[in-house]
Amino acid sequence: MSNESGNPSGAAKAVRSRYHEVQGAPRFPVKLPMHIKSQAGESDTESDNISANGVLFHHDIDMPIGSTVDFTISFPADVVGSDTDVKVQCRGRVARSSEEGTRRGVGALIDEYHFERR
User: How far apart are CA 15 and CA 65, in angstroms?
Assistant: First the structure.
């Protein structure tokens, strides 16, 4: 069930419009550790799937469509051929949200990212 009201804001309409444009990117069912920072607080979770444009994850807290979310995705060292895990810092926007049992499925577009250097 979508987390959309009957009269969505202009920001929510713009995000939803953009989401449909990029939704066709191939998705990879990869479970990677994530640290989420949003206006609702901080928490740890894992990805359900990732594409070039976004990520789907589960979260216990409601994240409004159109809201900004910062997250760090950790790629294990052995997967990326590195001595240490590789962390990617991302900033994005919540494009969709749905109830799935006691948790919420959250789809976020990635607007910008950079690799964390150690």
Answer: 8
Task: Indicate the average pLDDT of the chain.
Answer: 83
User: Side-chain half-sphere of 13: how many Cα atoms within 13 Å?
Assistant: 5
Angle at Cα 31 formed by Cα 60 and Cα 106, nearest 5°? 35
The one-character DSSP state at 28 is: B
Cα–Cα dist 98/102, whole Å: 11
User: For strand 41-50 and strand 54-59, is the pairing parallel, antiparallel, or unpaired?
Assistant: antiparallel
Amino acid at site 62: D
Higher-pLDDT residue of 3 and 71 is 71
**pTM reported for the whole predicted model:** 0.74
For residue 31, CA distances in Å to 18, 21, 59 come to 25, 24, 14
- Please name the residues in contact with 5: beta carbons below 8 A apart, sequence gap of 6 or more: none
The predicted pLDDT at position 2 comes to 40
Phi, psi angle pair for 19, to nearest 5°: -60, -45
